[in-house]
Amino acid sequence: RVMLKKLVITGSTIRSRTLSDKARILNLLEKKIWPVIESGEIKVKIYKKFKLEEVEFAHQTMESSTHCGKIVLNIDE
Length: 77
What we know:
By secondary structure, the protein is of the alpha+beta class. The protein is about 40% helix and about 15% strand.
């Protein structure tokens, strides 16, 4: 659908933002974005889930830029 509608998806980092900006962004995410994701209206594409012991391989996968979607590092298992 993105290509058919000629949409553009962009991302950014908040690393350089102030703590108050980060708090404001988090608040907006919790109020506006998470409900849409939880409802299924927006789906997050997950490329692969890695166990904590696989962190090195997960990082190599991320650096290779050959994946499409999110790389998840599961620290609970």
